[in-house]
Amino acid sequence: MTTTPTTEVPFEKIRAAFARGYQSQRQELAYWIDEVEGTIPPDLHGTFFRNGPGLLDVNGQRLHHPIDGDGMIFSMAFANGRAFVRNRFVRTKGFLEEQEAGKILYRSPFGTQKPGGMLANIFDLRLKNLANTSVTYWGGKLLALWEGGEPHRLDPYTLETLGLDDLGGILSPGKEFAAHYRIDPDVAGEPHLVNFGSQMKLGIGFQEDATIITIYEFDQAGKVLKRHAYRIPGFSVLHDMAITPNHCIFFQTPLDYNAVPYVLGIQSIVQSFRLNPSRPTRIVVLPRDAEGPVNIYDAKSGFIFHLANAFEDGTKLCVDAVSYADFPQIEPGENFLDLDYRRFPAGELWRYTIDTNTGTVDRTFLYPGTCDFPTLHPQNQGRPYRYVYLVAAPPGKTRWVVQTITKLDLATGATDVWNAAPYGFPSEALFVPRPDGVAEDDGWLLSLVYDGEQHRSSVVILDARDLAQGPIAQLHMKHHLPHGFHGCFVPDYFGPEA
Is 486 annotated as a binding residue? Predict the structure, then answer.
């Protein structure tokens, strides 16, 4: 993958290259990577999983929004300086039904309607579990996650779908289990997985809308240790949370919701949302122990989707989040392949500092550019930290497609950048600590990168201490994977004998 300054290439060519990454990938493949630029670190051992939409159409009927695509799990297993790649669809009930029918049977949350207009969609409130947002390997289970329903369990070696998983009976049918879990690295000497589910309770008559947030905490073996439900006033769209040793933290975006167009089959759920800038964003701080208090703080209005990290500082809580001035929206008449991303609000990284004594919230700007998908060293989850890694627009571009992986030093404000321009488009960069690493940035970053010129994907391995030197290795695949979302790296090797 060659890199060229973005300024030398017209934006339309870059936009068109990015749009090619939304072509469906119908093939399910498995093979050893035999085209490697550079050298795979010999002590990089384990498996990189990632989730995202694999199908952006059903038998030629194109989806209206890429987030409506059926989930496809990707894995790359590393051992002895070699890598084995595999991709496979999550065979959800809806996926199988639509493949058999050869047409769209379900409305989707972000924009896709069934063919036939209003009459085909009116009063049909069913949603397909897309299983397309994230993936985790925990307690011996590989789970594909989507916050609108239960996880799907997969075989970690073959990626075969084994069915819905109720996590030992704690999830009832259709119960939400979010895609954005967090792993606390040290709870009495062992890591815990913390996640949540949220459910809307629409007010009737004079009753106020409310959101039920359920917090789950699991030990290493996958046993649920804590399960607490909290009723929060108001309508909420919750995709992510941050944790500290004592708190779970959510951002309740001030969205207005008119359900009538959705019920009448005119538009999707998400197209019925509008940001209301006259109302504040509310920061909801829930205790990880049921006995603690629930606190809600007002902050500047904005749309918050992804959180980087949070930590406790005496009587203050610090939360770093990507904030948008407005809700990014694809309208009913738009084609997402033709979008001019320069018109969308920029995602900006801010620090929200909550003074728990006074109840006030201060906001500090951290990064001057379009960015998203923040990640960090896993040992600093919920703790004070210095480095955050972002997928960001090229330097100097405030509204652009993301083409760089950027390291931000929160202590000095300095940045270190690897730029995949003009036709490379990185996804979320996962931090993998070196086995003998000590420093916070002593590790590798793994990112699945789409090459819009070659129409294929590669896994890029970067030295997290020095991104500007370029990749340690680029592992070129024989096919492309559509732009995707979230993943994980585990030290277990789930590949054939190396």
Answer: yes
